[in-house]
Every structure is written in C-alpha cells, then in structure tokens.
Amino acid sequence: MTSPASFSALSHLECPRCGATHDADQIIGLCPCGSPLLARYGVPELKKEDLAARAPDLWRYHELLPVRSPENVVTLGEGMTPLLPLPRYGAALGVERLLMKDEGLIPTGTFKARGAAVGVSRAYEVGVRKIAMPTNGNAGSAWAAYAARAGMEALIAMPIAAPEICRREVTVVGARLQLIDGLIGDAAAYVREQPGYFDASTLKEPYRIEGKKTMGLEIAEQLNWQLPDVIVYPTGGGVGIIGIWKALNELRDLGWIDGPLPRLVAVQSTGCAPIVRAWEKGLPASEPWPDAKTVAFGITVPKALGDFLVLQAIAETGGCAVAVDDADLLAEQHEVARLEGTFICPEGAANFAAIRTLRESGWIRPDDQVVALNTGAGLKYPETVPL
C-alpha cells in the first residue's frame, strides 16, 4: 500500500506571471499579483510500468496530483474515459486517424468532475469546509456533487439561462443554488460578496487544473506514450487546455515522452471568441467579449482569467484558435451521432466543426492523428435535438 509520504510529489505553488513561489500547504487562491497559481512537483518514485496494476481512474497518477494523503481523496470513480476511433465520421472529414476522448461517461456527465474531484479533495485536505463558485452549469453541478461527497457546504451561482439539468443537479445534492440575471461574470461578482466561503472559481484556486490535466496524462498513456499530432479542445475558461499542456510538459520532464508536443487547438463560438480574437491579433491576453451568446453554454466566457496561459500553450505547441458558428456545431453534433452513434455535447461538437474547417484549409493534414475532446454527454442538452 502506498504510504501518505509518497502519495504525492507536490512541492510548491508557482506563479506563471511573476515567478513567485508559495507554500502549497495553506488555503490560498491567486498570487498577490493577481495570476493563477500552478502546482509544481518533485520527481516522483514512479515508473510507467507501475500504472498497470492501478485502478482505472484518475487517481492512478496520484504522485502527480496534489493530495498528500489517500484518506483525503474524494472520489466518485472519475477518470480513464475511452479514447474512441471515429472511422466513419473521420473518413467523411478526410481525417482518417481521428479519435475522440469521451468525457460524457464520467460522473455528473462532464469533464468538470475531474477538476471537482481533485479541487474538492485538496480543499478539504487544507481545511476548507465551505466553497462557493460561479458557473455556466456543469462545473457547478460537479463541485456541488463532490462537496456533498466530502461533507462540505457549497454555494453555486449560475446564470438564470444555465441548463435546467445543472440546476436540478445542484439542488438534489443539497447545495445552495443562486440564479443570476446575467452572465458568468455577474455570477462571479455575486460570489465575491458572500462572506465565509472559499472562492473556488475557475483558476482562483490552484487545483482544479490538476484534475483537468489528467485528460492529458490519460491520452498519453492510452496511446502507449506516443503523442498525437493535434489535440482539439473547446475553450471557455481554458482550464482543460492549460491542464493538458501542463500534463504533457510534466511527462516530458519525467522522460516518459519525447519529441514535439501535439499542436493544441482552442475552439470557441463566433458568439464568444475572445481567445480567438487575441490569437489572431497576436496579443498576449484577451479583451472582454461584448454580448456573449452561444448554444455551447459551457464556453460562454467573455474574459478568462487564464487567457494568457491558453495563448501561451497554443503558441508554444504551434497550435491555433478557431471560432465556429452555432449552426455548424449543431450540424456536426448530429453528424457524429448519425455516423458513430454517440450523442456529444455542443461544446464537444464545436471541436468537430473546427476540425472540418482546419482540414479544409490544410492546417490539419490527412495523415495527422487528431484527438478531439468531447467534454460532456449530449443527454444533458436535450434542447439541441428537435423532436
């Protein structure tokens, strides 16, 4: 059995903007300079071969996760989602080596469970017992569920237009739900005014990203440590794409992978595309997007706190940022279902609309191996399918 002393190789927290380091064993949010903090690790006593005997969940990588003691792990069985070939749909696009990482099969139905599992576990471990967060829906339902699992109190603020299923999920686990007449920024403003809660907003605590990075660890392991050419990700707050980039860099530092990293593609909606606009202009950070609106509600983030990290990840991997129309992503949602039998979420469908565009332009080559993240179950979005 793994001892608590060797369960995590967590060393410290580091600011990617000013370079300051911070003690990880405290309740902490942002760096004083206003930047998100990133968890850093020592060299773990871990070999690739060790993973084979471990349970097929994200905690198989516990040395590279921040929870120091196994008794503090809060889990609902999350992780190790399938990496599915899409042969018929890929052939239709002209991308024969197309794979989909299907996060719709994870607890609470979306990839948000990864960040919630690790974020709640570490918050509990350092002494947090009451959390609050703004959300577009799925993150709130995930964090509420894991808070309930941990015996913690949760306050979830979401726009009144958020999916009904997410509101019901928050309510059924006993969290306090506050509906806001506005966007996620307005929900964030409400959370800031609530005393007594730890603010678990996107990137305002250091550990959600550690849960999300396990998508990158799993992709590498599932491909036998041979990386794909391209990874395509729907980008709102950007935690997932930053996390995958972080994971792959950590694996390279361990010597488990070599060669160039996959070209990372950030996908947004034409109704809310601050990252795309910043990338096109060559800016180091984005500008707030006015009148943000898209059917892919999870990527309706007018200004992301970690935008500079998303843009850095794209630049350092030779990637790009693409915006797609709602009509196009909904068409791809139906086409993937028709050809492959899988009902994906609108955010995941945005990836496939982007892949079609990038293949037509030649940016994606016909022999590229491409991994697209479907970040949630389409069943959580019944309104996208007319009867």
Automatic annotation (TrEMBL):
Keyword Isomerase recorded: no
Matches recorded under SUPFAM superfamilies: Tryptophan synthase beta subunit-like PLP-dependent enzymes
Cofactors (names): pyridoxal 5'-phosphate
Entries under InterPro entries matching the protein: Ser/Thr_Dehydratase, TrpB-like_PALP, TrpB-like_PALP_sf
A family per Pfam: PALP
Domain Tryptophan synthase beta chain-like PALP, chain residue ranges per copy: 74-376
Keywords for this protein: Lyase, Pyridoxal phosphate
Domain of life: Bacteria
Record's protein name: Threonine synthase
UniProt organism field: Kribbella karoonensis
